[in-house]
Amino acid sequence: MDQQKTQQTHESQAELRRCISRLSFVGMGHSDDLDRALVTLRQAIKDNADDNYIKGQVEGISKILLTLEDHTSDSKQSQKIEASQAEIELLKELTQRSIPSSLKSSFDKISKQRNQDTAQLISAIADAIETFISQNKMGTVRPKGMLSRLFGKAEQIDKRGSDTQKQVQEGISPEIKNSLLHLIEQLSALENNSKLATKLAKKVSELKQTSQLVEILEAVASAFVDFTGHEHEQFENFLKSLSKRIDRVNEFINQTVKFNQQFTKQSQLLDTELQGSVKELKTSIDDAQSLTDIKSYISHKIDSILARVNQFCDEQVSNQENMANNCESLVEQLRATEDETSRLKDELAAQRLRAQTDPLTGLPNRYSYNERLTQEYNRWRRYRSPLSLVLADIDFFKQVNDKYGHSAGDLVLREIALFLQSELRESDFVARFGGEEFVMLLPETTLVDATKAMNKLRQGIKQVVVEVESDNIQVAMSFGIAEFENNDTPKAVFNRADQALYRAKDKGRDQVCCQRAKPVKE
Asked: Global pTM?
């Protein structure tokens, strides 16, 4: 009996230890001290340590938990005090502002009500402001304090002729215009859209009010939708034609299978008939009474056999002629399908080229740059050979457009693009990034070598002369360079090159600046 009780006690203790071990995982993650104590407790249970040792570990964990609870309580109390102080500072700030006396009086009343939490305080302030606004008629002049700035939007609605509203209506940023012009340039590369693109570009250059944007954006969207619809219709027609031709090929195959089946069946039938005729002929010869009878029967049977063979041959010739005609028709259809496929392939290649080419300069565009950047970046990551990225910007290009017109500016862009393309190596890549900005990728080129090459380009660009009517235009360019280093990403390198370009602009333009990556901390 005592032995049974002892065994039950041991089993209960073992089960209790397992429960303690499992529950210890719940307390993980609250503090480093608690985590270490729980790990020690689990290890002791796993090693079957004595009860006194485990009890000591549990008491130690209890003390840590009490410390954590006190710290949490103090933290909450501190946060509550800080929130209360913030509320007092907020009310003090509001009452010290230059605001109407009635509103100031409301804030003073709120500040005297100490027994309220942050949510109640903010709600009371909002109610006071809302009451003040509702008591004032629309259009009345309000003092220009903090509330004036907060609720300036309402005042702008009342003052229909205010300068702020005019700026909102007329303030079209150059970035928006440049983005629209870049989009329209892409549109001009599409078939039958050059006139529309010219018209829209003129409207963008004359753009003054945001309300005019709607008409331009609708026209651009409509043109892209129409072009996409036309391409979709062409492809759909090709698929329909291809489907018909595939049906005809399938029909020809079925006819061929049927012809082969008929040929086999007819051949077997002819073979059976010939064997039967030969047997009949043999029997007749055996039963014949005279040579005259044999001769007559043989002659008759041979004529019958020849007639059947001729019939079989005529049927096969007819079937073969039909098959030959069908085969010629099928070959013509397949040839037409190949021609159509080749035409579509060339058209898709041309469309891909147009999609990757800037229509104004003929250089690759940003889409093509992104594609090439991915290739060069993957190659750099694999082989770690030098790779530099360059951003270049034409200095004072806006002055060219303002003085000589946008057509002259376009001519300058084309000439600069031709110069860049002719001076760079075949392995280098240059694209128009947007507006008057260009981006270059220089494989197998360190930052030092890229700086030398760009300085040579910078000097050469100043010698480029663009003739416009009776005047000559000369421009300069600024360059920002960064090299792929350490664990660089394309975005990080681009940002460094952009920073270098801004520094070149700040230093007076017509400069080449570079930006290295920050050293990696070991």
From this structure: 0.49
State the Cα–Cα distance between residues 402 and 394, nearest whole angstrom.
Answer: 15
Query: Is residue 443 a contact partner of residue 385, using CB atoms and an 8 Å limit?
Result: yes
SS3 437: strand
pLDDT in tens, 160-187: 333 334 434 445 777 677 777 777 776 7
Report CA-CA distances (Å) from 302 to 272, 278, 297, 309, 403.
Answer: 16, 9, 9, 10, 106
Q: Are 411 and 347 in contact (CB under 8 A)?
A: no
Indicate the pairing of strand 437-443 with strand 387-394: antiparallel
The 3 state secondary structure assigned to 275-338 is HHHHHHHHHHHHHCCCHHHHHHHHHHHHHHHHHHHHHHHHHHHHHHHHHHHHHHHHHHHHHHHH
The three-class DSSP label of residue 140 is coil
- 3-class DSSP assignment, residue 356: coil
- The amino acid present at 304, given as its one-letter code, is S
Count of other CB atoms within 10 angstroms of residue 320: 12
* CA-based max dimension of the chain: 151
Quick count: other Cβ atoms within 10 Å of Cβ 364?
21
| DSSP letters spanning 455-512 | HHHHHHHTT--EEETTEEE---EEEEEEE--TT--HHHHHHHHHHHHHHHHHTTSS-E
What is the distance between the alpha carbons of residues 35 and 28, in angstroms, rounded to a whole number? 5
Query: Which spans in 101-210 are helix H?
Result: 101-112, 118-135, 146-150, 152-158, 163-170, 174-188, 194-205
